[in-house]
Specification:
The protein is built from one helix and 25 strands. The protein is mainly β. The N and C termini lie close together (6 Å).
Length: 373
């Protein structure tokens, strides 16, 4: 999943001490970046929001005329509707601008930061492809009009009232390249500026990562086996499992094994629902996991998959399917189109009659997939 902007906001203090943005909807976000601007002669304001998130504040950069700017970020926090952001600090004359992103690495998206005491924060080069360069500006004097950037785009800004002004912009890169923006804002010649880089979903490429704790049990119980086979056996028999995964431009029409077999450690990782996962990335393709399990003489079963994806199901639906050996078609048995990014959810279905779903070796095939867009 490529990085994209979900929402933004900006506000300036009216009392020299506090400022809170209007509410925005950060549902589906994986990262929020804030540009904090304030008066350098006094203590920097504190950063908070109304969802009790923790914030990492990066290096502050100052200009001798009084401007100070620092970027702060929250990675994989508590996000949702009605989200507001606040700076507070006595006589700090704060202003704040905010961008919420989806598609960034939920584990650790931060890469690096630069800054300076002029309109150009300096050159920064992402360590990986598929990243976003976020840049913030604090002008020392009352600017007017609309701020500009020589590279990328301005996303949110707020003119000075009784505080400093603020602006935040970005450039989303598919291929890593040096980024050297210069800000402009009428009346804002004396400025402090900064740029930070944040990485996409898997740290190197956009990803759609449905991750696995599957159970296709041969009985109505949904409990996974505690002692799974460490690798698929050559001849299907009780305990047989054959799990594969891959990314495809089009959904396979049959239940042939996918391009990447699970390795022995993968089978161990998905044997219990313990938060240890096997991920499959995709870029503008389908991310697919396929599970084949021996069911023997059982007449019915419960199919249960537990996992998560950094591509919000609320944007791109996740599907659970079972393969019909009689019609040679995949049948959808459950979906999720409401869960937020990087949040555990279950897909499950009771199959009352397995007659049409067993192959000649008494094995059933199920798959979970999601399209990355």
């Amino acid at each position: 999943m490529a990085i994209s902007v979900l929402a933004s906001a900006a506000a300036a203090s009216g009392d020299s001490t506090n400022v809170t943005t209007s509410a925005i909807d950060t549902t589906g976000a994986s990262l929020v970046v804030v540009s904090m601007t304030s008066y350098r002669a006094n203590a920097a304001p504190t950063m908070s929001d109304n969802k009790a998130n923790s914030w990492t504040i990066l290096t502050a950069y100052e200009q001798s005329s009084g401007a100070r700017v620092a970027l702060a970020y929250c990675n994989n926090g508590t996000f949702g509707s009605g989200h507001t952001f606040t700076l507070s600090g006595a006589s700090s004359y704060p202003a704040i601008s905010v961008i919420a992103y989806s598609g960034t690495d939920t584990a650790d998206s931060y890469d690096s930061v630069v800054g300076d005491n002029n309109l150009s924060p300096g050159t920064i080069t992402p360590a990986n492809d598929n990243s976003v360069c976020v840049t913030g500006m604090c002008p020392s004097y009352n600017p007017s009009g609309v701020p500009g950037l020589t590279s990328g785009s301005v996303v949110a800004y707020q003119d000075q009232s009784s505080s400093f002004a603020t602006a935040i912009g970005n450039l989303i890169q598919e291929s890593k390249a040096a980024y050297d923006p210069t800000w402009s804002w009428s009346g804002g010649t004396n400025s402090a500026t900064t740029t930070a880089v944040f990485n996409a979903g898997d740290g190197s490429s956009p990803s759609s990562s449905p991750s696995e704790s599957p159970s296709t049990s041969p009985s109505p119980s949904a409990t996974p086996s505690n002692s799974p086979s460490s690798s698929p056996s050559a001849s299907p028999s009780p305990g047989y499992e054959n799990y594969t995964r891959g990314d495809y431009a089009a959904l396979p029409g049959d239940d042939a094994d996918l391009e990447t077999p699970y390795i022995p450690q993968d089978y161990t990782d998905v044997s219990t629902d313990n938060g240890v996962r096997v991920a499959q990335t995709a870029t503008d393709e389908y991310a697919i996991h396929e599970f084949k399990n021996y069911v023997g003489s059982e007449t019915g079963c419960t199919v249960l998959w537990n996992g998560q994806t950094n591509n919000p199901p609320a944007i791109n639906t996740v599907y659970l399917q079972i393969y019909n050996q009689d019609t040679d078609e995949w049948e959808t048995i459950d979906t999720d189109n409401t869960t937020a990014a990087s949040t555990d959810f279950n897909l499950t279905a009771d199959i009352a009659d397995l007659t049409d779903y067993k192959n000649g070796s008494l094995v059933i095939s199920c798959r979970v997939y999601q399209l990355d867009t």
